Amino acid sequence: MTYCVGMMLDRGLVFMSDTRTNAGLDNISTFGKMKTWEAEGDRVITLLCAGNLATTQAVVSELDERAKAHRDRNPSLFEMPSMYQMARLVADTLRDVIQRNSDTGQRADSVFNATLILGGQIAGGPPRLFLIYPEGNFIEAGSDTPFFQIGEIKYGRPILVRAYDPALSFEEAMKLLLVSFDSTVKANLTVGAPFDFHLYTVDSLVRGQIGRIEQDDPYFQTISQGWGDALKQALDSLPAFGAELPQPTP
Amino acid sequence: MTYCVGMMLDRGLVFMSDTRTNAGLDNISTFGKMKTWEAEGDRVITLLCAGNLATTQAVVSELDERAKAHRDRNPSLFEMPSMYQMARLVADTLRDVIQRNSDTGQRADSVFNATLILGGQIAGGPPRLFLIYPEGNFIEAGSDTPFFQIGEIKYGRPILVRAYDPALSFEEAMKLLLVSFDSTVKANLTVGAPFDFHLYTVDSLVRGQIGRIEQDDPYFQTISQGWGDALKQALDSLPAFGAELPQPTP
User: Fold this and answer.
1) CA of B176 to nearest chain A CA: how many angstroms apart?
2) Shortest distance, CA A173 to any CA of chain B (angstroms)
3) Which pTM does this prediction carry?
4) Which of A162, A176, A241 is nearest residue B228 as measured by Cβ atoms?
5) Which CATH fold would you assign to the domain B3-230?
6) Domain ranges for chain B
7) Euclidean distance between CA atoms B66 and B82, whole angstroms
8) What ipTM, to 2 d.p.?
9) CA-CA distance, A167 to A146, in Å (whole number)?
């Protein structure tokens, strides 16, 4: 399993991914699931991956190879004129990889499916965020649905739904995401630290702060432990069942 | 889908269930999923059901019929000498019903599976709580795992894990459960109010408070709206990413 979130804020895009992959519960490893490409002043692209690791690595490798030799090969993600075209390129690559593995060779017990979050900005356009399905189609985030989750989305969703605000600062968004990731990690063994993140500032067209938060990171520990206490206090602040309800102020 | 929780507290057992059933998203109805049997001074039994509605209704009806004519028919849940025997009876009934539907007649697209939570107390023994699987086996709650969820368990789990305490009062437990149910309802259309509950007091051997909370119940509305604000405050109380961390007090 996996847990990744891509989020649109007024001040930019925030990405976070866990790094645990598993082939059964008795076989877990750490792999990065976030990849960022940059052409300074022209474009910054970040991809988050959930699903079959061979599939997502193949997608990233294909995009990467073409990007490195982008004068020779087409289509390259450095040549796409818009984020929409970029999403189509990535989606087509994903569908091709899945099809290639599905049509030929050994049959596997599991399907080769994967789901991706693609976000970034190209000079001349706004930042955009897409959720790409294994079928090769995709949807775009907007003001109604300003963030996407992939993988084990359920445990960490309620806090995102309640506390997301487009005006969040990067520092507040990181806190929110770490609470969401902590809730997920506490409930699902197949999601685990360290967590990779990228904070992209709107219109900067350079990579923002990119980093990795380890399980024993002091800030993450503070959040993880503090959140339990904060939740209990939040619960305490509400009236108990059967108590006199506060009257609405007129 | 469904969401039900059975919980052991020092002062008794707490049960809550939603009432939404659906055969597709375009066909939803309201059905109670909680059933309580009582023989005052001797035993109180509550059953929560998730899964195929025909299956769970058949299980309840069979148990109910035998219970009503329990002098004539065996085995009846009013004659079981212990909660363990009770769990075996219910589990056997569940397995029989599933098997009967699976072996004969039309094939359905969906399986006939169901999962049950059984809790209660019989004179001479302590309150006990069981989770019964469609295969007809079951597990019992203990101090390590003092509550069971069935149905759509994920959205509402983080708050239970964080805030459960065996010393909770019934009033606090109801608040906790309504927060958990609210988080689930907000994320999954196939879980919905009204919510049925039963608060059984340890060693009372009579039905406790039984009731139903409607969507527009003023208390539920207070919790639902208050929880969003309380969560934001909880989040605000934690240090933002990159901030100076509070030093642990020596």
Assistant:
1) 7
2) 8
3) 0.90
4) A162
5) Glutamine Phosphoribosylpyrophosphate, subunit 1, domain 1 (3.60.20)
6) 3-230
7) 17
8) 0.86
9) 12
